[in-house]
Amino acid sequence: MSESLRNDGRIWVPKKLEDAKAIREGNLKPTDLAEEDRDYYLERRYPAFGNLVPRDVASRAAKERCDAGFGVNRTGEAVYLDFAAAVIRYGKEQAHIKGLNEEDEVLVKNLGQEVVRSKYGNLFQMYEKIVDQNPYETPMMIYPAVHYTMGGVWVDYNLMTSIPGCFAIGEANFSDHGANRLGASALMQGLADGYFVLPYTMGDYLSDDIRTGTIPIDSSEFEAAEKDVKDQLDAFINNKGIHSVDYYHRKLGKIMWDKCGMSRNEKGLKDAMLEIKALREDFYKNVNVPGSQNEFNEQLAKAGRVADFLELGELFAKDALERTESCGGHFREESQTPEGEALRDDENFTFVSAWEYNGEPADAVLRKEELKYEEIEVKTRSYK
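RESULT FIELD:
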């Protein structure tokens, strides 16, 4: 929503904490706030670009304002995207073109809304259905997500990785959209790969394996892996804890968003590692999984996934702590330009971090896979 509309909308929050609090509590409407009491913070911070700063810069700025207490919805996690100025501007342009009275406020407003409707009507309609507010009359409320995370596993034309029989589809691979994970395009890639590509390409791999026959499962490695899984499922079902799986999922998500999300710093990452470890220990002691093993039990399946997330989340924080540069979706607050752009360190961090499992996530061992660029020159993004 915000990326499609920032070219005409103006983003702001109240200048005063008490006004933000009054709006959150429903005691003040945004349209009643005087212009001089509004902080158009992107225009203030980045006068050369205003509301058209790069998406990651805009996202971090919105989160910073909300974290500082200036958020405007009930949870304090939103900023305003306001089209009032655009409506007036377009309305006056249309009135001038048609030779109508440019001082007629009602006429100008109607003409301006028609222009905005012709450009963004579908998005405004979606917003109104979701929020039950008319975005032509009151500012929209938006909040950023992490717009992209760099990555993308190498795959061949059949979407198979360098590991025979292991396929990577959708946003997990690099095939269609490089390393940028841009929401809608990543979704398109997942749908295309799943519906149209894999049904044909996997068959090509399996055709060479059709006569393999039954694979024996009596090896010591298989039996050990099977026992580990069964022991975990038994522990989940028999653990009569006090919290649901979703309780731990939300707790983990909050830690990751606050301290290992779109903006990270050394203290926050160290705190995140400790907090996730403590949360993981509490999870195994106090999680409650209803139902039984021998039925369709989505909560049991979710418990296994959250158990994995609790290890992966700590490893994410450990990896982010190790990489003391800003690059792509990884933004370390200690490594940025005066304009708030990512400041890379290509001399020391041109490698892929591959972490070797060693029990606890904190004990994982870093194995560096060096990146060598022969055909292209590595450059930092610049808008100058």
